[in-house]
């Protein structure tokens, strides 16, 4: 019964995620606003809605947390949200004379909406499977959700990126259970709407080094303080 409920929950979650994605990017149903930031969020809201509806219908507990194992929500907010906004926004201001504050936070919220579904719900439902199998399932479902079905070189590269992203973001989530943290990692590529060039790649590398270093140092210090404490 438990396995049947879990399988049913995943089916409903994914059906809703796919449906809302299709309506947002393949139809004009959501064209009721000209606000580009709302339009961005509507394209990524499906996984979150699917997770909440599925959890309600099948009585599946959702242990979602913005702060995860961190002592307070301000810490991951500063490291994984405020820092990239300041860093990327400053570089954008120097190069283009504008600070895309609203756009950057919209991208982060978009990432958060997706991560509620992919990590907060789906990864939790598949956590009893072998890790490689979990990564493959999530990566393939994530790829299909983007509705890119052409077998082009760029799409195959994108599929590879999703495999790496599923593995890497999944490890971050398993390490700290912070939705703010995984939303930051998720948003790295989405921050740069005009493609990845030298400056963008340097910014991504800098953020990855800072974030991974922070996770390692915080985890080490937390174990020294209280090795038996797990806050999810």
Properties at a glance:
mainly alpha, 9 helices, 75% helix, globular
Characterization of the model:
The chain is an all-alpha fold and 232 residues long. The chain has a domain at 66-225. Helix content is 75%, strand content 0%. The protein has 9 helices and no strands. The protein has helices at residues 2-26, 36-44, 46-57, 74-96, 101-125, 131-145, 153-176, 179-190, 198-225. Helix 4 runs parallel beside helix 8 and helix 4 (74-96) packs antiparallel against helix 9 (198-225). It is globular and about 55 Å long. It starts with a helix and ends in a 7-residue tail after the last helix. Residues 225-232 have low confidence and may be disordered.
Layout of helices and strands:
Blueprint: H1 2-26, H2 36-44, H3 46-57, H4 74-96, H5 101-125, H6 131-145, H7 153-176, H8 179-190, H9 198-225
Helix pairs in contact: 1-2, 1-3, 2-5, 3-5, 4-5, 4-8, 4-9, 5-8, 6-7, 7-8
Low-confidence region ranges: 225-232
Number of DSSP E strands: 0
Radius of gyration from the alpha-carbon trace, in angstroms: 18 Å
Structural class computed from helices and strand pairing: mainly alpha
First and last CA, distance = 26 Å
Short characterization:
The protein is mainly alpha-helical and 232 residues long.
């Amino acid at each position: 019964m438990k396995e049947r409920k879990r399988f049913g929950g995943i089916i409903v979650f994914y059906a809703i995620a796919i449906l809302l994605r299709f309506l947002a990017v393949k139809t004009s149903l959501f064209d009721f606003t000209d606000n580009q930031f709302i339009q961005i969020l509507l394209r990524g809201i499906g996984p979150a809605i699917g997770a909440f509806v599925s959890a309600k219908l099948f009585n599946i507990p959702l242990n979602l947390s913005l702060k995860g194992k961190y002592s307070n929500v301000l810490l991951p907010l500063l490291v994984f949200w405020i820092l990239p906004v300041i860093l990327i926004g400053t570089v954008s201001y120097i190069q283009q004379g504008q600070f895309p504050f609203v756009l950057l936070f919209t991208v982060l919220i978009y990432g958060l909406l997706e991560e509620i579904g992919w990590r907060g719900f789906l990864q939790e439902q598949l956590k009893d499977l072998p890790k490689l199998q979990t990564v493959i399932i999530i990566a393939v479902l994530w790829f299909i959700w983007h509705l890119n079905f052409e077998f082009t070189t760029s799409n195959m590269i994108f599929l590879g990126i999703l495999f790496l992203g599923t593995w890497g973001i999944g490890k971050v989530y398993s390490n700290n259970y912070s939705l703010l943290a995984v939303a930051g990692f998720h948003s790295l590529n989405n921050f740069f709407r005009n493609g990845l060039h030298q400056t963008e790649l340097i910014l991504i590398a800098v953020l990855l080094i800072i974030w991974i270093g922070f996770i390692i140092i915080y985890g080490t210090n937390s174990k020294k303080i209280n090795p038996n404490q797990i806050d999810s």
